[in-house]
Amino acid sequence: MLKKHEVLSAVVDSGVVLIVRLDSPDAALAVSRAAVAGGIRALEITLSVPRALEVVRTLADEVGDHVAVGVGTVLDAEMAVASVQAGARMLVSPNLNPDMIRAANRYQALTISGAFTPTEIVQTMEAGADIVKLFPTEIAGPDYLRTVMAPLAHAPILPAGGATRENVGDWFAAGALAVGVGSAITKAARASGDIDDVTRAAADFLAAVESARTTS
Q: Is the torsion defined by CA of 207, 209, 210, 214 positive or negative?
């Protein structure tokens, strides 16, 4: 099991959290395994996945010694504790719930807690979150992040969703600590049916992140 500082390193060093939001536990497992084979080091299994905590428990057993396995859409302390008991070392929420962060800190799980406005970002940091999840990003692109980072340059912000190989450089140039990515990787095999396409998409995305960080 990874320690908290190791989970943070997995997110920051790789620059990517893979958001796995799929329709079946089998698909979530297959995609997660393929993405890990492509180099992904941090996984967020959203609670919308059927039997999500079973998926987390399986992945934690298989790769939890070197991959940060997390749960997404953790809205309260009760689900935070259940997620940790299933093996999660990272808890992600779309909103700020101080009780969730407090429970995660009690068990030394990394928290990525959602915020949008500058006020919410500061409140999230004050509540003890390790990383601030900028959400939603569909209506707030890199220019918004750049504007927010001007007065809040110390904020560890991870924009969640909408990141692609083509725009990931813009996010890092704007000040992102890391990015959350979903369908660009998780749905890479939909057209072909070849799960290896997920592995290739993961490797390509990580290469794009590395390139973006070198040039930003």
A: positive
Q: How far is it, in rounded angstroms, from Cα 168 to Cα 185?
A: 13
Please count the other Cβ atoms lying within 10 Å of the Cβ belonging to residue 44.
Answer: 27
Type of residue numbered 127:
A
Average pLDDT, stretch 168-194?
A: 95
> Is the bond preceding residue 136 a cis peptide, omega within 30 degrees?
yes
- In this predicted structure, the answer to whether residue 216 has a pLDDT above a threshold of 80 is no
Residue 80 has pLDDT above 70, yes or no: yes
Inter-residue contact 142 to 174 (CB < 8 Å): yes
Residue 162's pLDDT is 83
How far from the centroid of its chain's Cα atoms is residue 52's Cα?
15
pLDDT, mean of residues 40-49 = 98
Query: What residues contact 187, with CB distance under 8 A and at least 6 apart?
Result: none
Please return the burial class of 38, using the count of CB atoms within 10 Å of its CB with bins 0-12, 13-18 and 19+. Answer: buried
End-to-end CA distance of the chain: 33
Residues written for the chain: 216
Give residues with Cβ within 8 angstroms of 103, minimum separation 6: 77, 80, 81, 84
Share above pLDDT 90 across residues of the chain, in percent, rounded to a whole number: 95
Contacts of 5 (CB under 8 A, 6+ apart): none
Average pLDDT over residues 18-38: 98
